[in-house]
């Protein structure tokens, strides 16, 4: 395909792009693109490879577009005729300009996870920052996630032998040992944040002996993530494995293929996400799309209208408990492959999951506050489980996530019965600010905080912790207050 011909198709009425030296007609896909048509129109008639690889696996375009839209390879000898893309310069503020001139501060000055966010904000694109930082509606759920950890306080014991030689921070998840009671939670499109993307997250996890859960929507193929992780794990000789986070596709065949590919690549567990029948109402995402759209006008009448929250219809809005058996069978649960449900937000659903006998773990999460406005934070859900159906904790492992920024707070969740805590946003900020070195440093920060907190609590291992080491009176009062309003202890 001659590049001069490609360059002619640079409008909403006829939009062609080049990806990995192949030409694609994406005109009919403009209205279905989850990121909005403006993102594609910016690249119309041009080589979109560099922008595409920030957010998509190499095979995504081939799997998404029908074969009739694959127009063939680009004639490399004519490449110079492709449209030149000029990226708009970011609006410079005094702070941003100063930061860009001097570069990020030395990594050693990041002494807590919260330090990475402002540095990343200055370093990464607005699109990337908006994607990471956005949450549902007024961000209340996100803010509640951050605040929840302060609602639990510690009850330390003193005069205990907490010699450093006795310290052991190790635990396990789904039968897989790990060096620390936290893991890298699933976060989509890491390549948008930094070119290393999931490669850096996988390598950092392996280098520090913790687990990692890559997202269905990774920027590089899941097989490649697994291969990179194995190589890094072999070098570090530390326990670390991968758990595949699954978004169930409305097309069962595609979901089964995703599961089989993850299984073949060697992922050790499956995290089935159940809180996302559609994408939440994220105001800042919508604002950014609207601003981009203003530059290109309304989509052509022939394009498909994207329903807010539909994610182009890819997500299975009709998924029910009855779907778990075929997902479990596709995964091979009966052959020892563990399965967890991610996105449990009520004690009632936790009990249903545990009593079903179909899952090995429940993952309490409100999706980082990105889905339902006013969704409960995980610690409140975990306390309800302890009160209303404590047998769940005997039947299933429990993982939690949501706004955790301190190593000590990870131990609060452990005291309440959680096996491990997922860390997402802070590690993406560390990645955006410093690449893999930032992620490793962030993990080390948490490790040091964990060891210090364990010693100050009077124990040497997370396994020694239980509810006697915490005070949940404030958290309980919040829940009891609602119970009193509604007149039902179980709401």
TrEMBL record:
Gene3D superfamilies: Aldolase class I, Cytochrome b5-like heme/steroid binding domain
Coiled-coil intervals, chain numbering: none
Xref: InterPro entries: Aldolase_TIM, Cyt_B5-like_heme/steroid-bd, Cyt_B5-like_heme/steroid_sf, Cyt_B5_heme-BS, FMN-dep_DH, FMN_HAD, FMN_hydac_DH_AS
Keywords noted in UniProt: Heme, Iron, Metal-binding, Oxidoreductase
SUPFAM superfamilies, per database record: Cytochrome b5-like heme/steroid binding domain, FMN-linked oxidoreductases
All copies of domain FMN hydroxy acid dehydrogenase, residue ranges: 105-475
Domain of life according to the entry: Eukaryota
The Cytochrome b5 heme-binding domain, residue ranges: 1-75
Cofactor(s) in the UniProt record: FMN
UniProt xrefs under PANTHER family: CYTOCHROME B2, MITOCHONDRIAL-RELATED (PTHR10578:SF104), S -2-HYDROXY-ACID OXIDASE-RELATED (PTHR10578)
Family note: Belongs to the cytochrome b5 family.
Name this protein carries in UniProt: L-lactate dehydrogenase (Cytochrome)
Taxonomic lineage: Eukaryota, Fungi, Dikarya, Ascomycota, Pezizomycotina
């Amino acid at each position: 395909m001659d590049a001069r011909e490609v360059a002619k198709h640079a409008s909403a009425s006829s939009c062609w792009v080049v990806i990995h030296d192949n030409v694609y007609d994406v005109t009919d896909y403009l209205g279905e693109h989850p990121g909005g048509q403006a993102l594609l129109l910016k690249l119309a008639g041009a080589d979109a490879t560099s922008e595409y690889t920030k957010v998509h696996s190499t095979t995504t375009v081939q799997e998404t577009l029908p074969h009739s839209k694959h127009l063939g390879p680009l004639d490399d000898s004519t490449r110079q005729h492709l449209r030149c893309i000029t990226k708009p310069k970011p609006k410079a503020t005094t702070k941003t300009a100063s930061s860009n001139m001097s570069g990020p501060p030395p990594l050693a000055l990041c002494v807590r996870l919260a330090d990475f966010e402002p540095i990343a904000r200055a370093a990464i694109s607005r699109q990337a920052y908006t994607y990471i930082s956005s949450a549902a509606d007024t961000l209340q759920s996100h803010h509640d996630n951050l605040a929840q950890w302060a609602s639990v306080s510690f009850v330390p014991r003193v005069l205990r032998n907490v010699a450093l030689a006795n310290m052991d921070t190790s635990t396990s998840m789904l039968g897989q040992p790990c060096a620390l009671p936290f893991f890298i939670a699933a976060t989509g499109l890491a390549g948008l944040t930094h070119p290393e993307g999931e490669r850096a997250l996988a390598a950092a996890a392996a280098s520090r002996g913790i687990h990692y859960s890559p997202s269905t929507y990774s920027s590089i193929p899941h097989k490649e993530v697994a291969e990179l992780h194995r190589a890094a794990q072999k070098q570090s000789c530390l326990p670390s494995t991968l758990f595949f986070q699954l978004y169930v596709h409305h097309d069962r065949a595609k979901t089964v293929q995703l599961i089989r590919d993850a299984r073949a690549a060697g992922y050790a567990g499956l995290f089935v996400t159940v809180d996302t029948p559609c994408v939440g109402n994220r105001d800042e995402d919508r604002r950014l799309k609207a601003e981009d759209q203003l530059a290109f006008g309304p989509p052509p009448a022939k394009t498909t209208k994207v329903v807010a929250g539909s994610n182009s219809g890819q997500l299975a809005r009709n998924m029910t408990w009855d779907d778990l058996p075929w997902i479990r069978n596709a995964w091979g649960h009966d052959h020892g492959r563990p399965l967890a449900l991610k996105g449990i937000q009520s004690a009632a659903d936790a009990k249903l999951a545990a009593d079903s006998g179909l899952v090995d773990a429940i993952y309490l999460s409100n999706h980082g506050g990105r889905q339902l406005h006013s969704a409960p934070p995980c610690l409140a859900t975990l306390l309800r489980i302890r009160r209303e159906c404590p047998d769940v904790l005997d039947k299933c492992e429990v993982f939690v996530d949501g706004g955790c920024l301190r190593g000590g707070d990870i131990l609060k969740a452990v005291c309440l019965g959680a096996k491990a805590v997922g860390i997402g946003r802070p590690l993406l900020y560390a990645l955006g600010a410093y690449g893999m070195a930032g992620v490793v440093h962030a993990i080390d920060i948490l490790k040091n905080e964990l060891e210090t907190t364990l010693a100050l609590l009077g124990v040497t291992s997370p396994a020694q912790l239980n509810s006697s080491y915490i005070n949940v009176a404030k958290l309980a009062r919040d829940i009891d207050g609602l119970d009193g309003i509604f007149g039902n202890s179980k709401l």
